[in-house]
Amino acid sequence: MNTDAVAIDTRHIAGYRRMAVKRALALGGAFVVMLWLVILDLSIGPSGMPLSDVISAILAGPHDGDRAATTIIWYLRMPQSLMAVVVGMCLGIAGLQMQTILDNPLASPFTLGFSAAAGFGAALSIMFGAALPLPEYLITPIAAFAMTIVACLIVYGMVHALGETPEILVLCGIGVLFLFQSLQSLLQYLASPEILQQIVFWLFGSLLKANWTSVAVTSLVAFACVPLILSDTWKLTVLRLGDANAASLGISVGRLRRRSFVLIALLTAAAVSFVGTIGFVGLVAPHVAKALVGEDHRFSIPLSAMVGAVILASASVFGKLISPGGVIPVGIITAVAGIPMLFLVIYARKRRSA
Amino acid sequence: MTQTLAIRDLGVRRAGTDILSGVSCALTTGQVVGVIGPNGAGKSTLLSAVAGHTGFSGTVSWGGSGSGVQPKAGDIGYMPQSCKVSASLTVLETVLLGTHERLGWRVSQGDIARATGILAELSLSHLASRCMTTLSGGQQQLVLLAQRLVRQPRLLVLDEATSALDMSHQISVLMLLKRYVVRHNALALMAIHDLNIAMQYADQLVLIHDGRLVQQDAPESVLSVENIRRCYGLDVDLVARAGGRPVIAPLAQAMA
Known about the structure:
The complex is a heterodimer of chains A (354) and B (256). With 354 residues, chain A is mostly helical. Helix content of chain A is 80%, strand content 0%.
């Protein structure tokens, strides 16, 4: 190899390493922001507890210290704050995966009808669940989770029969979305005013429903799915080059798409089952992540997860600030704040490419 | 050792129509073989079948003389038609993805050096840190070719790898492929639309018309006035050149 070639290689290797360091710093920055927001979220609430009390209650653990502070921090605020992080992460990852497998920047975890199915399942359980021999706080999440998986199986079956292209997947998903939306509307139409109020409250998406059980179950599903998603990191990055390219580089595109689709369904089901449908996180977080670190999934998957957590934790903080007691559901705040955020990301990307 | 790509009685049928039928030929390594034929002749289908991306009847084998087996995915560097990339990946990242099977969480210096080496050979070093979305169609095509070459396949199957390139780049790519097939004892099978480029730079040509093989031979033999008239419906003149292959000149009445 001549001297010029060695110089070019050294320059490119250094450039590539610099880019990787910048991306790692973006991940580190997002992690610090996420942590700071969790602490902020824990320290805000209607009781007006000072930050020093919050910290000492955290350090004292759940079974120790001042009883009121322990209860407020460990049994009310912490499950909600952690749920914001876990749900935000699940939706961030699921959104990125959905945009990748559908090759569509408009896709989100809810594009293929998962939220409508979860909503239908929740509505069904609110109306008829009392007859089941299960604790009341578990019936709705189980029904929402189960119905999301049913929607996933229907779409999976249709795609298996009709073809595994993104177009077929979107068409089948939209069909399932309309089906479950109609069924959900039917239940709302038939419900009594009290039941209707409960259904609508569930659909808003609120962290007030969070408890340690929901945090544990959602985290378990996430811990089971994320390693499987991470094992496909390079394949998913290659998929961004298009189906034909990916297939010609030895990737079984159909299998990768099916596998990712099932993992998205599980993550989405886990995220929405306990707290209801929280929109825009799964749409905006991947765009923010891609704008910051590009489409190398080694970086965009963890960053999309952290951005999702940051958005939801911010919404929780904001909700508490404008309405002490957390009456305004985060689902409403993320939807309202999500639109300007999305425009901002699109504007920033447009300026960068100009 | 010389390898042979042996295609025997290859046929592809879609929706009751024969796209290809009875195609048989044998091609040995160390050559750039151009697949030519008018639009809709079946060139892309043939290449896709050889690469294992389209189902077919007949056999395609790859190996030493008389002992060939179906080519493995790892042997083939297949570049399908019209691969537009809309991902926010840099050129270097895109070429690196050509070896995705062996990339770990930390990309090794060797992998980066291999990718930059190929970029240098294709005179693309200056684009290494550019985003793919900012490149022209021709530049993207060259990057995707680099992505195949970085895999160091023994069998390159390129469907219109030069269709969006200017003449100078088309010639550079063909010269590069000629060096590549000799250095790696490989075979490059590529669709070529420009008959003059095919005439001057291919080692052999395979002419396809209406899904059938018309002729497989040296360019001077395949690109005869009769074959061009029969397959392309075009009257041409072959202008002899001292010390080189003839140049194809369409006649005025054929262009009217």
